[in-house]
Specification:
This protein is α/β, with parallel strands linked by helices. The protein contains 14 helices and 13 strands. The strands form two sheets. It has a seven-stranded parallel sheet, sandwiched between helices. Strands 10-9-8-11-12-13 form a six-stranded parallel sheet, sandwiched between helices. The longest helix has 22 residues.
Length: 400
């Protein structure tokens, strides 16, 4: 049995957490089981998600890495969990989570993999202390969310680096979700025939919602009834003031009846209603889940060159790929799609086919499970792990 213990340094669910939840949800191999550790000082929705999936999990107070006592205490608890779970391989979804796992398993011989889901600076020493420490600690394997990330981290001296694009299921809306969206649209004064531009994603300045707002006045010159919905909220306590900044921008451009911040909600029913989906990050974005979900939902997608998604779609064929942080280019792309609904539908269908080729969950899961199994079995055959060789079998947790 291959026992995977995942280490998360947050209790909320962002894109990186969603990816590993999908790894658990769509497990392919019956000889692999999953457990999880959440390193956080307060509870969040991640633990609830594990419980719904039937995944065993434990929470460990993290404190601050710069406080030796807190760091030692957290690593000691993670070490205990590694031993108790008889983990044969550990998986982290960030350099911080990897470092906790590495320090906690010193002397145990348990291989540790990292799924790297951020775009770092090319020079290691400019990428922050966590990345420097991670690289010097030599992960047994590194999965990267894009070739762009792979190209950078491969120059850091890391071995066994492999690009694995995120896999996400086709978003599915139920009748209740659809009714809720229709009710909101009615309250917002958005009619069924009004073109709807959807910008899903958490609220942070680098996610670029301000670019869409700046582009909309130009769109309205030819599509006066167009409406924009910004779908998402803040996460991890970051940039709580950003929604206020967006509202001031909306007011300054006289767009209060045209741009709507609706907060964090299930994306599926909104995707069904959207005529165009836009992704507007102004900094490199590893492989945005919102882009995958748009392709999976057969929605016309506009993204930019800073998105990892640009590696898998061709501009004008499966989606639009435009310059980043360019309201004029975004307005032009939106207007072109709204002007040509038949061409937009054709592009969306091609985008869905590309999703099937590259981004279905089974593809991601197969690639990661194969590598984790190889790591686990190699460690066992080398006799490098000092975990009990006769660890009692544990029933696989239920999966949905």
């Amino acid at each position: 049995m291959i026992r995977v213990l995942s280490v998360y340094p947050v209790a909320e669910i962002g894109g990186a957490e969603t990816v590993l939840l999908n790894l658990m949800r769509y497990r392919r191999r019956p000889d692999i089981t999953h457990e999880a550790v959440i390193l956080a000082d307060k509870d969040g929705e991640l633990g609830e998600a594990f419980t719904r999936l039937g995944i065993r999990w434990q929470s460990v107070r993290r404190g601050r890495m710069r406080q030796p006592q807190a760091l030692w205490s957290a690593c000691r608890e993670v070490r205990r969990i590694v031993r108790e779970s008889h983990a044969t391989v550990v998986l982290a979804n960030s350099p911080q989570g990897f470092l906790y796992a590495r320090w906690a398993t010193i002397g145990l011989g348990v291989p540790i993999a990292l799924y790297y889901m951020a775009v770092p600076r090319r020079r290691l020493w400019r990428s922050g202390a966590l990345n420097v420490l991670m690289a010097k600690s030599s992960p047994s394997a590194v999965f990267t969310a894009s070739h762009a990330i792979n190209t950078i981290v491969s120059t850091w001296g890391l071995n066994n680096v492999k690009t694995v694009y995120h896999g996400a299921p086709v978003p599915s809306a139920d009748a209740s979700g659809r009714r809720d969206v229709e009710s909101q649209l009615l309250l917002l004064g958005i009619r069924r025939e009004d073109p709807l531009i959807l910008a899903p994603g958490r609220l942070q300045p680098w996610k670029g919602q301000q670019v869409l707002i700046a582009a909309l006045p130009e769109v309205l010159k030819t599509h006066a009834k167009a409406q924009a919905v910004v779908l998402g909220g803040t996460l991890f306590g970051h940039t709580l003031e950003y929604s206020g900044q967006l509202r001031r921008q909306i007011h300054a451009l006289s767009l209060t009846q045209r741009v709507h911040l609706v907060g964090h909600q299930p994306v599926a029913p909104w995707l069904e209603r959207a005529n165009v989906v836009v992704h507007t990050s102004t900094e490199p974005d590893p492989f945005p889940n919102v882009c995958i979900e748009a392709l999976a939902s057969s929605r016309p997608l506009i993204t930019n060159h800073l998105s990892g998604t640009a590696e898998v779609i061709k501009d004008g064929l499966q989606g639009r790929v435009i310059p980043a942080n360019d309201p004029a280019a975004l307005a032009s792309a939106i207007t072109a799609l709204l002007n040509d609904p038949v061409g937009a539908e054709r592009m969306a269908e091609a985008g869905y086919r590309r999703y099937v080729e590259v981004c279905m969950p089974d593809r991601m899961v197969h690639s990661i499970e194969t590598t984790l199994a190889t790591m686990s079995l190699s460690a066992a055959s080398d006799g490098s792990t000092n975990l009990p060789a006769s660890a009692p079998p544990r029933d696989a947790a239920p999966f949905v």
